[in-house]
Design goal:
- This protein is an alpha/beta fold.
- The protein has 2 domains: about 160 residues, Aspartate Aminotransferase, domain 1 (Alpha-Beta Complex); about 270 residues, Type I PLP-dependent aspartate aminotransferase-like (Major domain) (Aspartate Aminotransferase, domain 2).
- It has 16 helices and 17 strands.
- The strands form 4 sheets. It has a 7-stranded mixed β-sheet, sandwiched between helices. Strands 1-2-3-15 form a 4-stranded mixed β-sheet. Strands 13-14-17-16 form a 4-stranded antiparallel β-sheet, with helices on one face.
- A hairpin with a 2-residue loop joins β1 and β2.
- α4 runs antiparallel to α13.
- The radius of gyration is 22 Å and the shape is globular.
- It starts with a helix and ends with a helix.
């Protein structure tokens, strides 16, 4: 896949760039690296004009396709007005409208904008902590989160994280969270065992907790571990019983990824905080939001000299260009009936995955348009981490026309929500061809 043009760009990349979640020696030694120049719908194109299905939705955010004319036009129109104005002491029409629309979808009336999933969670933590202090619940200084959790990469959100590969090195910097066991739906009895432990742990620590933080229905970065709506409802009820806030991190699951617009709302759970990012702008521009209740907002009221203000903000909070993309994204969801078309696409992905009856498949997981294929040796034994089977299979899939990404030896498929059944089947076929090349 190498070419003189691509190699020239990569030499410059290797001289200056530092890539996220990427081992430098591995990146610089690979011959399969791509330089992406264009996007069109659910396709990506490299500098040599080769096309690839975007099987990761550009890290789970490009839900409506690249160069969507509705979103392009909204950003261009906003450029004709203003590109940025601070929300510290000012406001603008787009942010007002978008906050109203998010509130309609979630039932949460207050919206605080930031710029990434990590900051959306960080905002929720600080609001929950300060809010509890300001209503006199001064013992509530701790947080509970789940095993295998991933909530982002800022210090607060990493403190909640439960994936040692990502988080262990930073432990000396972090606060300790009460660690709740996360079930794995592959074992139908696991939820009952986990709930019994959660009841015990919340009974022991509940009066010290400011909030319980959960990824609703799916732990994406854990390789698609998932639980039932009933489990989420029970966690919400137990959280209420001990008087802690419930924070749902919908950065990965929001905007239709699991089927309903928001996984928690679809499960019948009303949280105190709901965090969103990724798909909020259709994958166009950085934007995040932390939604909360009027009761939380009221805990921050008072004369300035009481210093109950939420002293937190970002330079680009509520950036008008990002907000324009976000409003256009909600327009597209309504006009193109995106959610109504999801059941057929989810079924098509499920059918394609069901055909992966290969000895190198250790298991398949799917929730909505989120899927993971776990690889093993053909004799049924697992690969050792240093063999990088999932990584090599993901790279091999590119030769067959799709970009997918692995988490360990689970190869993930997180396509745009508008990807049609033939293209979904093609992504799975490319994954299968790449995995067969590596594992078969």
């Amino acid at each position: 896949m190498s070419s003189p043009r691509q190699d020239a760009w990569l030499r410059r990349d290797h001289a200056h760039l530092w890539h996220p979640f990427t081992q430098a020696d591995e990146w610089e030694s690979q011959s399969d690296n791509l330089v992406i120049a264009r996007g069109d719908g659910v396709w990506l194109e490299d500098v040599d004009g080769r096309r690839y299905l975007d099987g990761t939705a550009s890290l789970w955010c490009n839900v409506l396709g690249h160069r969507h004319p509705r979103i392009d036009a909204a950003i261009q129109a906003q450029l004709g007005r203003i590109a940025h104005s601070t929300m510290l002491g000012l406001t603008h029409p787009g942010a007002i409208e978008h906050a109203e629309r998010l509130s309609e979808h979630t039932g949460l009336p207050r919206v605080f904008y930031s710029d990434s999933g990590s900051t959306a969670v960080e905002v929720a933590l600080k609001m929950a902590f300060q809010g509890k202090q300001q209503v006199g619940e001064v013992r509530r200084t701790r947080f509970a989160a789940f095993t295998e959790a991933y909530h982002g990469d800022t210090v607060g959100s990493v403190s909640l994280g439960g994936i040692d590969l990502f988080h262990a090195v930073y432990r000396p910097l972090l606060f300790d969270a009460v660690r709740l066991p996360a079930p794995d739906a592959a074992d139908p009895e696991d939820e009952a065992r986990c709930l019994a432990s959660i009841r015990r742990l919340l009974g022991e620590h509940g009066d010290t907790l400011a909030a319980v933080v959960v990824e609703p229905l799916v732990q994406g970065a854990a390789g698609l571990r998932h639980h039932s709506p009933a489990f989420l409802r029970e966690v919400a009820a137990l959280t209420r019983e001990v008087g802690a806030f419930l924070v749902v991190d919908e950065v990965a699951t929001g905007f239709g990824r699991t089927g309903p617009m928001f996984a928690s709302v679809g499960a019948g759970v009303q949280p105190d905080f709901l965090c969103v990012a990724k798909a909020i702008t259709g994958g166009y521009l950085p934007l995040a939001a932390t939604l909360t209740t009027e009761a939380v907002y009221d805990a921050f009221r008072g004369p300035y000299t009481d210093y109950r203000t939420f002293f937190h903000g970002h330079t680009y909070t509520g950036n008008p260009l990002a907000i324009a993309a976000a409003n256009a994204t909600l327009d597209v969801y309504a006009e193109e009936r995106v959610l109504e078309q999801l059941p057929g696409r989810i079924a098509a992905l499920q059918e394609a995955l069901a055909r992966l009856d290969e000895p190198w498949v250790a298991g398949v997981r799917q929730v909505g348009l989120m899927a993971a294929v776990e690889l093993q040796r053909t004799d049924g034994t697992p690969y050792a981490p240093h063999e990088r089977a999932g990584h090599r299979a993901s790279l091999a899939a590119r030769k067959h026309g799709a970009i997918v990404r692995n988490l360990g030896d689970r190869v993930m498929v997180m396509p745009p929500l508008v990807m049609e059944p033939p293209e979904l089947r093609a992504v799975v076929a490319a994954l299968a061809a790449g995995a067969a090349e590596v594992c078969g």
